[in-house]
Each structure stands twice: as structure tokens, then as C-alpha cells.
């Protein structure tokens, strides 16, 4: 047998303070991991919650969710979201901006509606009336409006233009949020109703909505269904990875080889390197499948192009910390690696991502020929921060380029390692 020492880990840098430090403390306090999602991912989950709690009547569905700080617009069909937007306006932010003291006037309402119009303007064409068949509203603002209209007229089943006009006049007549004593309106909704109403009026006007149904489900239900999907073959993250493979013309045969080898290596060192986190195996597999996406941009430094794409792309199903981890592994799979690129990863990955990077680097190195021929039985043994590879006798002599690559890898020293 012939052995080749492939890698020895440097001492990691001290953990910087900041958002990652706060999330680490919050996770310890709660006893559960914390996932931060993007606005577009929030929109996808909202649509999933609406789709699972409304009848499937066929056709395209428009979903509008007016939250406290953002408004999500989605067009979907069945369980799939086709178009997603998250706009930087919500009932709380608009109310605080235009009705800070609670006073409601026509002039203030007009200014609030103009602000909502300006925010909607860039996306109107993507969500115009011809693009969808039925409209649904979700979450607090829509539910509060619907409950108020139904309390006024029990036979009212939907939110329509006539109802919104009545609500607008009643809101202006009150003149002050503290005097908004409307039937069915919860007291905690009084202060934020003017901003939410301004947004809803502009959504109706600009998107050509006549009638809007109100869904029972939204973000919370969508999140639950998404988590259940991760236990089946409906994991949205897998679909996102496959979509990226197709979009950037990944060599799937090579991706299959790299994935199989990297995961085989992981199984051998999992316990010694403390990689028993449930995320370790899937994220290493996804990184193996996507490590060459940057080739579609340029061959030079393609690992950096790939990392940038994965860090900034809309990847449905991925919370931000998983997306950052995936990007970091891809960005470090070849050439020099900056350890500072791992500093902002969510604990414990700011330390353990380096191990996954090494496994991917070795898999890529050993498949440098890109041929279909299988690798021999290679044994990995983790010894502290080092790993030793054992090859069948004579294999490295028959593959001198791989032997040279391994020697260079053994001498590799990341930047920022002190």
C-alpha cells in the first residue's frame, strides 16, 4: 500500500463579533437552529401555504401578502410559484412614515398611496391582470380588512373595490387611528391600518384586481409544508440545485462522479471530524454538483464566479445561512482559499466548512481526468486536523499526475491561517 498525506488544517481565526455572533447566542438560548430567509424565499413559502389551504381550481393564482415591512407578490400554479417579488413596503413601515402621530388626512393618504404606487411600478407588467386567473390575499392586513368588511355585511365573502372604498372613507372620517372603531377590526390593527390600506388600494388599482379571496394559510403554513417536504422527494432545495445545473450547463456525469466520491470520503471521516450535522451530507453533495457552475462565465478563477452566483442567486428552499455555506464550499474547492471567507458563516460551519471543502477538493483532484473509469478503493483516516489517504499498491505510480497533485495539496496553506 502507498500513502499520501493530503491535508492538515490550519488553526482557525478567532470568531468575529456581529450578526453571526448574535445568531449563535440566540440559537443557544432557544435550543433550536435559526434560519434567516430572503424576501423572495418568504414569497415562495407564502405561496406554498396558500396553495395548500385553498381549492385547486386550475389556472394561475395571484397571491398578495402585505406584511409589516414588506409586501410579497406571487403568481403560481398548483404548488409551484412561477413569479416572485418582495417589495420594500409594509403596513407598519408605511404607517410609521406617513401617519406617525396617528392623524389620517386625505393628503397623507394620497402621499402614502403614491409611495406604494412607486414601489409597485417596476413590477406591474409582470403581475398584470392577463397573467393570472384568480387573486388571493394572505396574512394580517388582508385578514383584518376581510373581517371588517364581513362584520359590516355578513354575506361578504371576498374583498372587493366597493368594500375598500367604504373602508377608505370610514378611515378618513375617523381622522385618527385611535378613533378607528370599525366592526371586526382588532385594536392592535388600528395603528397600522392606514398604511396597509394604502398599499392594498394601489395593488387593486395597478394590478387590475376586482375581487380578492382571503386564504387561511400563509408563511407559517408554507414553512411547515416545506419542512415536511424535506423529508420526502419534494425538497425545494434539490429542485433548485437541479435548476442551477441546467441553467449553467453543468457536466452532470462529472458532477455525479464528484458527488459520489466526496460523499464516500465524508462517510469515512464523519465521526472523527464531528461532521454528524444533518446538513453536512446534503450540502457537500450539492456543492459537488454545482462546483463548476462558474465555468459558464469564465474558466479563469471559475470557483470564485461559482461562489458569487450561488451567494447571490435566488435559490428557493435555501435559507440564507445554507446558501452562504454552499457558496463558501464551492468557492474554496480549488486553488487558494481565504479563511476569512468562512468567518461570516453560521456556527458551527465557520469552523467545520473547511473540512467539507477539503473533501470536495480531494474528490475534484482525483477526478481530474474526467473519465468514466471508477476510482480504486481509497481509504481516509482523520488524525486530528490532518487526513491521510491510503491507495492500492501501484495506483499512484500508474497515475503520476494525481500523485503530484496530492503532493501539492499536502503542502497547501490557506491565506489568513496565521
Task: Summarize the structure in words.
With 418 residues, this protein is α+β, with helices and mostly antiparallel strands. The chain has 2 domains: 208 residues, Hypothetical protein af1432, CATH 1.10.3210; 189 residues, Nucleotidyltransferase, domain 5. Helix content is 48%, strand content 12%. Strands 4-3-2-5-7-6 form a 6-stranded mixed beta sheet, with helices on both faces. A 3-stranded antiparallel beta sheet has the order 1-9-8. Helix 4 packs across helix 7. The radius of gyration is 27 Å and the shape is elongated.
List the helices and strands and how they pair.
Elements lengths: L1 E7 L10 H12 L8 H14 L8 E6 L4 E7 L2 E8 L3 H8 L7 H15 L13 E5 H14 L6 E2 H14 L18 H15 L3 E4 L4 H11 L6 H12 L4 H18 L10 H11 L11 H11 L7 H12 L17 H18 L12 E5 L2 E6 L3 H4 L1 H11 L8
Parallel strand pairs: 2-5, 5-7
Antiparallel strand pairs: 1-9, 2-3, 3-4, 6-7, 8-9
Helix pairs in contact: 2-8, 3-4, 3-7, 4-7, 6-7, 10-11, 10-14, 11-13, 11-14, 12-13, 13-14
